[in-house]
Amino acid sequence: MNRVAVIGAGSMGRQIAVHCAIKGLEVSLYDVSDAVLANASDFSVEYLESRVKKNKLSVEQQIETAKRLKFVESLENCVDGASVVIEAIIEKFEPKAALFERLGRLCPAPTILASNSSNIVGSRLAKVTAGPERVINLHFFNPVLAMDLVEVVVHPEVSPEVESAALEFCKVIDRTSVLVRKEIPGFVVNRIFRALTREAMSLLEGGYASAEDIDLAVTRGLGHPMGPFYLMDVAGVDVTYLARLDEFQETGNEAAKPNEILERLYREGRWGKKVGRGFYDYPDSGDSVGNK
Ligand SMILES: NC(=O)c1ccc[n+]([C@@H]2O[C@H](COP(=O)([O-])OP(=O)(O)OC[C@H]3O[C@@H](n4cnc5c(N)ncnc54)[C@H](O)[C@@H]3O)[C@@H](O)[C@H]2O)c1
Asked: How far apart are CA 234 and CA 287, in angstroms?
């Protein structure tokens, strides 16, 4: 398990790729957009340099990590020889399903085909994939380079070998895993996050308090490191909106229905820190892990 392919070089994919390369794996990263791929390459250079400046990596580790990280311009070349493929493309079912259908044909078993989706369960993607027993969710958290957790989500078709290999993979990349043994959209963390953000947005919509004060209340009163509005801006308002919409359309669960303010921000392109505006404005949107 020493070769990983990451599909999608946006906020998450580029960080997953860099993290796996730092941990000693050979990594190929691919995106449909050449511009995003070039931007991800610049990001990796800047990030590794910043780690050297902070004495977190030696110059030799920086050079070796960069050698292990390849930016590849075709899906076929990206997945060639990979034992784990991690999909981190847009949070919409149709493009993900089309990709998994291709991956099922391109990647021989027992290659693990993992989705980093925030919400879409592996069994939906397994239905269109040759070798459904190897389709799982490996859900990383943003910023991947700092957040220790990975949710490993399995469905009844997943083989015990794939489940253990996925848990082992998390150990290899030095991340804490939790096993979600029965599928549910949003898994564990995002369901809890959804309950929190839904209530926070209702309070804001009702005029009970400002976003700033709600964030302050949650950080100081509940001890969370970030308030819900700031966290949605960091994660991407678009990502939060699309994940909710998908769950609502799939299950009809009213609790998942995007709040009005979330829908408005999505439509206005206020997608959070990566574009310089979301619930808050970021005049200097040079977020260290952003991609826009
Ligand atoms: N942003 C977060 O905080 C976060 C956290 C956990 C999981 N996720 C999940 O990770 C995935 C990616 O999220 P993101 O924030 O990195 O999104 P993003 O918009 O930053 O990046 C998505 C990338 O996928 C590329 N892409 C789209 N279709 C493609 C295809 N068919 N093949 C190759 N590349 C393709 C796009 O060009 C884009 O660069 C989503 O499923 C999201 O739900 C996001």
From this structure: 9
- Predicted model pTM: 0.89
Q: Which residues, at least 6 apart from 96, have a Cβ–Cβ distance to it below 8 Å?
A: 87, 89, 90, 115, 117, 120, 125
Can you spell out the DSSP letters for 121-139?
A: -HHHHHTTSSSGGGEEEEE
Taking only the tens place, the pLDDT of each residue in 28-58 is 999 999 999 999 999 999 999 999 999 999 9
Token representation of residue 252: 């009809």
290 Cβ below 6 A of ligand 1: no
- Which ligand 1 atom minimizes the distance to the CA of 118? 43
Ligand 1 center from residue 48 Cα (angstroms)? 22
The separation between the first and the last C-alpha atoms of the chain, rounded to the nearest angstrom, is: 32
33 lines ligand 1 (CB under 6 A): yes
- What are the backbone dihedrals phi and psi of residue 191, each rounded to the nearest 5 degrees, phi first? -70, -40
Going from the N-terminus, what domains does the chain have, and what CATH number goes with each? 3-180 (3.40.50.720), 190-275 (1.10.1040.10)
Among 18, 29, 89, 266, name the best residue to mutate to test ligand 1's pocket (greatest count of ligand atoms within 8 A of Cβ): 89
| Residue listed under structure tokens 């390459």 | 41
pLDDT tens-digit profile of 202-247? 999 999 999 999 999 999 999 999 999 999 999 899 999 998 998 8
